[in-house]
Design goal:
Distance between the termini: 24 Å
Number of helices: 5
Number of strands: 0
Number of domains: 1
Helix content: over 70%
Shape: globular
Largest sheet: none
Structural class: mainly alpha
Order of helices and strands: HHHHH
Length: 132
């Protein structure tokens, strides 16, 4: 993502319904399988196929993560897992972090800086998968 695949394109391609359903279901399945939100996979896909710009990819990925996480929570609750009191504190902290990240990502940080941040997060995610 660090300029390996070229500059961000102004030529945004339309996502066909079958493409969205195919990639969304595959990414959603594997995200649920390995226990991640999925945005870490979806963002590069959106950028590589020129389906959106960096900030659009971030917004779509955030929604995708939220839906996958909510689905995982419903599945866990359905299987009998109970939430601890501390969980609500963590949700509140995550909500504050999400609002601040959304604000800075959309208003204060330019697309090139976002690309470097995304690349850094992808490297951390890969390391976590290999070393844990």
């Amino acid at each position: 993502m660090l300029n390996i695949f070229g500059k961000e394109s102004d030529n945004i391609k339309e996502v066909k319904l079958w493409q969205g359903l195919f990639f969304g279901s595959i990414i959603g399945f594997f995200s649920g399988l390995i226990g991640i939100g999925g945005g870490i996979i979806l963002s590069p896909v959106i950028l590589l196929f020129h389906w959106g710009k960096m900030k659009e990819a971030a917004a779509v990925s955030a929604l995708f993560i939220w839906v996958n996480s909510a689905s995982g929570l419903v599945g866990q609750l359905y299987s009998g897992v109970t939430l601890q009191k501390e969980s609500f504190l963590l949700v509140g902290i995550a909500l504050i972090g999400g609002v601040l990240g959304g604000y800075f990502g959309s208003k204060k940080i330019n697309n090139m800086q976002l690309r470097y941040i995304l690349a850094f997060v992808l490297i951390i995610a890969c390391g976590k998968l290999f070393f844990t």
